[in-house]
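Bumping with the actual sequence this time:
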Amino acid sequence: MYVEERIYTLQVGKAAEYFKNYEQFGMKVQLKHLPDMVGYYTTEVGELNLVIHMWAYDDLNERDRRRAAMQADPEWQAYLGKNRPFMISQETRIMKCAPFFVERLKKMLAATK
C-alpha cells in the first residue's frame, strides 16, 4: 500500500476559510473519488499555515485512476476555484507502507467505513 501526503502552505489567516470551503464544497466530492482518507491536519507548532492531508491507495495505478476521475469532476473543479486562491505552495510525497504496517492501515481504513 501507498500513502500520499499533500502539504499546502496557506496565506496567513486563511486556514479557517479554507477548512470551511473544504467541508462545505470539497470533502464530499473528494471522498467520492478518494475514499481512503488517512488524515487531515493543520500545524499548531513549528511551521504554521500548513494543511496536511494523507490518502491511502493499494497501488500507484489506483492513485492515478482515482485522481484523474476526481480532476475530471466538475464539482471538484468548482471547489478548487474557491480554495486555490488561499494556497501559496504545495508539496506532495508518496510513501510506501512498511511491511508490518499494511494490515494495520487496512484495519484503520475499514473502521472509517
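The C-alpha cells above came from a reply further down the thread. Helices lie at 15-33, 60-71, 74-83, 102-111.
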